[in-house]
Amino acid sequence: MTSYSISKQHPLLRLLNYAKSYRPQVWTAATFTILNTIFDLAPAYLIGVAVDIVVEQENSIIAQIGITNTIGQLAILSLLTLLIWTLESLSEFIYDRLWRNLAQTMQHELRLDAYSHLQELELSYFEECSTGTLLSILNDDINQLERFLDSGAASILQFITTVLFVGGSFILIAPNVAWLAVLPTPFIFWGSLAFQKRLAPRYADVRDKAGFINSRLANNLSGIATIKSFTAETYERERVLLDSEAYRRSNRKAITVSAAFFPAIRFVVVTGFIATLFFGGVAVANNQLTVGTYGFMVFIVQRLLWPFASLSSIMDQYQRAMASTRRVMGLLDTTIAIPTGNRSLPLKTVRGEVHLDNITFAYNGRTNVLKDLSLHIPSGANIGIVGATGSGKSTLVKLLLRFYEVQDGQILVDGIDIRELQLGELRRCIGWVSQDVFLFHGTVAENIAYGSFDASHSEIIHAAKLAQAHEFILQLPQGYDTIVGERGQKLSGGQRQRIAIARAILKDPPILILDEATSAVDNETEAAIQKSLAMITKNRTTIAIAHRLSTIRHSHCIYVMEKGQIVEQGKHEDLLALDGIYASLWRVQSGIH
């Protein structure tokens, strides 16, 4: 599985299809861009008219409308110039504002859509795709598209308008000489296509290398404590150096091709200019061309040919944008492997009965973690699950939450296959305290209320008290308003775990899952939490996964797992009497030989 899907449709068409709701704004911006380009070209025509007035006087172009006085003609020309310059400034303001606002809006919508789609993808996608690559798409690639819409789209329209307008004027005014100026354009177009073909794969590689370096930096910043503890700073610096060097080399290859474009185009442009200068002058000398028309042609020919020189930067920006579009649209095209069901599950009606019916599951490309496993948990039951690492305990939880999909069998909640249920409602009725606690950068209160965003401050405090967290929270510098730091790094493991328990308590779910929920707390705190849990778990289905058998010894039923199977089950006393795996684990943990 790749980090993102690849669509066969051209990325520009994908981008245009995505922006179809903004078409009125696009058309308006394009119209004013074209008008601005025409107004910008007008001074060259006005210069030609001015020369014609001075040289031809009563026989000039303006004289043909009835004004033969030279001063009058120049006055009209001056007023016309003022009008055109005013319209040019106004149209530039309008198109610039429209394109830039469109770029910001598209950037905002595209990032939001990409992130929203990303949240709906299954956990296995994130296991196979690096965080750095995803961050590169959500930030760098979408920002690249914003830069293209901000100025690149207008540049392309200005180029096309200039070529068509000036080229058309040449053919209309002086068809005998026009071919001299137009002659270089096929060579320039051919060269542009050749450069584009060579640039496209190079910029695709640049975007990939950007993803690699982002991934490296994201991982290293997350694992900075490990890097420091193993004094691996030099080693990691070298790895960043290698990735950064690869990114630089990739960019250098693209730049080599891009930089060669401008000098090549410059040479072709100057040949067209010289040809117009020489042969146009000959035409004037032979009375085949007026002085005004010749002056206009010599001045405007550069406006016709020099835009081709800007093709290098336009094509450069375009190819970067298309490489980014492929990655962003590829992410949006990624199929959601675990779609939500349509069946409703109102929270107040959930009894909490869970039935795992002959389920089989394996992670991508691995052997089965669970095989034909069945387990029935009655409504309101408090069960414990124990077993060696890798026996499949935590996998059961992830399947119940539909983080992964079973390959065979079914999981039922209140007799309904969870694949039929709306994902949001299924997960809303389950409170999960993971062994790997994740806290968000924010206050203690915000982390406890995460998922229960409307909770009052008194409800937050009540949940913290039940989780035995209230006392240590009050001792923090700002109490419940203390910032916990990224991933809760300012708190100890036990403190983070108690906040996670408080978060689950505040959610008040019909089904509560405690996956090693007290593994990071001391014995005294664990004993206090156990007393609270006795009250918390009352009248709700509770699944407690534990290595410490003391935390689940009072469960209604304890299940012992080994290699994806339930090999023992019963109450604590029954399992001790069985003298099997559970009894052996109990003796080791209690110090009985």
UniProtKB/TrEMBL annotation:
Name of the protein this chain belongs to: ABC transporter
CDD domains per record: ABC_6TM_exporter_like
InterPro entries the UniProt entry points to: AAA+_ATPase, ABC1_TM_dom, ABC1_TM_sf, ABC_transporter-like_ATP-bd, ABC_transporter-like_CS, P-loop_NTPase, Type_1_exporter
Gene Ontology cellular-component terms listed: plasma membrane
Pfam family, one: ABC_membrane
SUPFAM superfamilies: ABC transporter transmembrane region, P-loop containing nucleoside triphosphate hydrolases
Segments crossing the lipid bilayer: 26-55, 61-87, 152-171, 177-195, 254-279, 291-314
Residue span, ABC transporter domain: 354-588
SMART domains named among the record's database cross-references: AAA (SM00382)
Membrane topology recorded in Swiss-Prot or TrEMBL: Multi-pass membrane protein
Protein keywords: ATP-binding, Membrane, Nucleotide-binding, Transmembrane, Transmembrane helix, Transport
UniProt domain ABC transmembrane type-1: residue ranges: 27-320
A single GO molecular function term of this UniProt record: ATP hydrolysis activity
Domain of life (superkingdom): Bacteria
Subcellular localization, as worded in the UniProt entry: Cell membrane
UniProt organism field: Gloeocapsopsis dulcis AAB1 = 1H9
Primary location recorded for the protein, binned into one broad class: membrane
Keyword Lyase: no
